[in-house]
């Protein structure tokens, strides 16, 4: 069951939600994190396998046009 990505959702997103919003694959999201274009946040306390989450506003900022860019 897919969760619909809401435009005004203020909670942290899972990688599946980021992929849905950006229309990309999980490896592409991980590449964005490695390149420093998107910040990932670890949640889950001291568990060995803490989950990564993403701020919706930071994901949405990836799709904003660059000022002075070509149209």
From the structure above, extract its key features:
71 residues, alpha+beta, 8% strand, elongated
Kindly describe this structure.
The protein has helices at 15-22, 26-34, 56-61; strands at 41-43, 51-53. It is 32% helix and 8% strand. By secondary structure, it is of the alpha+beta class. It is elongated. Strands 1-2 form a two-stranded antiparallel sheet.
Which series of helices and strands comes N to C? Answer: HHEEH
Roughly how much helix do the residues carry, as a percent range? 25-40%
Largest sheet: 2 strands, antiparallel
Strand content: 5-15%
- Poorly predicted tracts of residues: none
Structural category is alpha+beta
Count of β-strands: 2
Number of helical elements = 3
Rg from alpha-carbon coordinates? 13 Å
Outline the secondary-structure elements.
Blueprint: H1 15-22, H2 26-34, E1 41-43, E2 51-53, H3 56-61
Antiparallel strand pairs: 1-2
Brief write-up:
Helix content is 32%, strand content 8%.
